[in-house]
């Protein structure tokens, strides 16, 4: 193993990824396992988590634990953390990736129920899970926490205001938690742009592609695997002097 490979090696580590059964989360789960980590795969649908866990075990031989969890509910987040520590005894890498962004026609049509759901999944859940796991990481002597934010946090549009506000809160929480759990725990954030995940199936793709070619430096959306480099950097020893950082992985959105 070269010195560069050692920097990104996760052998003996345990990574917990919310929203880990599909999209960016699934790509990160597979990458962490390929780098040597055992993984906890959490999402609302247990069957989807099991499918990804089976894929991890077939491809890498690493241990993969599927856990059903709706991160919008405080008690389920608590149970997720307890399950991970009970089964593995540790969490070295936490990725708060689960999110949702339901669209609406006009902002006055946003109901209290929709507003609360968006804030709960995108901000309340990550706050609670980071507080629980980060405190235990600090007590154990170290770890890495990765928030997955969105370009909407800094480029909000009229049809994503609650989501954008939640993700902006996640950016702020990244810095706050970095100070709360430093110097042993690093907390960083990936500011994700448009990726071709399940969410993109609802896009008017012709309209998006035309706009991407006109406005984005790379002229296209990203593939889920293209988030892996940033995730491995933050998760591993490659980023030992990086904390409180928000890294844009958005293809050059202006």
Low-confidence residue ranges:
none
Strand arrangement across the biggest beta sheet: 3-2-1-4-5-6-7
Q: In total, how many domains does the architecture comprise?
A: 1
**CATH secondary-structure class:** Alpha Beta
CATH fold type: Rossmann fold
The description of the largest β-sheet is: 7 strands, parallel
List how many beta strands DSSP finds.
7
Average pLDDT rating: 95
Order of helices and strands: HEHEHEHEHEHEHHE
Report the C-alpha radius of gyration, rounded. Answer: 17 Å
* Coarse structural class: alpha/beta
Shape: globular
What fraction strand? 15-25%
Under the CATH scheme, which architecture would be assigned?
A: 3-Layer(aba) Sandwich
What distance lies between the first and last C-alpha atoms, to the nearest angstrom? 39 Å
- Can you identify the CATH superfamily? NAD(P)-binding Rossmann-like Domain
Q: What would you say this structure looks like, in words?
A:
It is a single chain. With 254 residues, the protein is of the alpha/beta class. It is built from eight helices and seven strands. It has a seven-stranded parallel beta sheet, sandwiched between helices. Helix 3 links the parallel strand 2 (38-43) and strand 3. Helix 2 (23-34) packs parallel to helix 3, helix 2 (23-34) crosses helix 8 (228-235) and helix 5 runs parallel beside helix 6. The mean pLDDT is 95.
